[in-house]
Write a structure and sequence with these properties.
Helices cover about 30% and strands about 15% of the residues. By secondary structure, the protein is an alpha/beta fold. Bound molecules: 2-amino-2-deoxy-6-O-phosphono-alpha-D-glucopyranose.
Length: about 250
């Protein structure tokens, strides 16, 4: 894992966005995996800025989001469809047929998960996958203990995750859906390149474990140590508890 340190959250988000933009310029047909959460908001804001100010072109790429809650209408402010529409899909030149999220409204959820995997495969696999880190150590919605070979599946959310994600649900953890569809760790590890973005002091303890602790299902993000090409963009607050000053873990 290759650590890219920046002083503050704003610079980390800009760097992550610039790395994505660079890949998109090099390969306009990029297959991009996308994450949600507060950490990603300034990343999408910067990508929108690059689209408006420099003409960054999304018209030929494909996107696949990591996860979506089960049972939420797309119009719900907590749904990741809604999040993505508002922050990226609408403001840039991405058409509906270019973008995909797991279908948390499907009557047959296992079939929806299989379809999602097939869609990713038909697109040629994910070239670059943007990832955040939950305080439980989750990536996507793969909560501990996580099976490292898992494909897209329905995952139970831990109480801490529901609490942390409660803002768009009127602040009530119980209003946050109990399950979500998520790419599995197996799906994530198959992406050709991963870009993990972690900012803020509240992630410092879990990030130190992910970067320097043992690879264990009890910390799903630690699976990224096994990825051959994973960049980790951080701010200083997020790496306050790591031991190593430079690169972390095997690269
Ligand atoms: C959410 C998402 C993850 C995200 C993580 C961190 O639950 N499912 O994909 O990376 O938790 O969220 P935040 O950036 O709000 O801390």
């Amino acid at each position: 894992m290759h650590l890219l340190r920046t002083p503050r959250e704003a610079q980390a988000a800009v760097l992550a966005a610039e790395l994505i933009a660079r890949e998109l310029v090099l390969n306009p047909r990029l297959v991009l995996g996308l994450a949600t959460g507060r950490t990603m908001e300034p990343v999408y804001a910067h990508l929108v800025r690059l689209h408006r100010e420099t003409g960054l072109d999304f018209s030929r790429c494909r996107t696949f989001n990591l996860d979506e809650y089960v049972g939420l209408p797309f119009s719900h402010p907590g749904s990741y469809h809604h999040y993505m529409e508002e922050r990226l899909f609408m403001p840039v030149n991405l058409r509906p047929e270019q973008v995909a999220l797991p279908d948390g409204l499907a009557a047959d959820l296992p079939a929806a998960c299989r379809r999602y995997e097939a869609l990713i495969e038909a697109a040629g696999g994910i070239d670059l996958l943007l990832l955040g880190l939950g305080q439980t150590g989750h990536i996507g919605f793969n909560e501990p203990p996580a099976a490292f070979e898992a494909r897209t599946h329905e995952a139970q959310l831990l109480p801490l995750t529901r609490k942390q994600n409660a803002d768009p649900f009127g602040g009530s953890a119980r209003a946050v859906p109990a399950t979500a569809l998520t790419m599995g760790i197996g799906t994530i590890l198959e992406a050709r390149r991963c870009l993990l973005l972690v900012t803020g002091a509240r992630k410092a303890a879990v990030l130190a474990q992910v970067l320097e602790g043992p690879v264990t299902p009890l910390l799903p993000g630690s699976a990224l140590q096994r990825h051959p090409d994973c960049q980790v963009v951080v701010d200083e607050a997020a790496v306050a508890q790591i031991r190593q000053p430079g690169d972390a873990g095997p690269s």
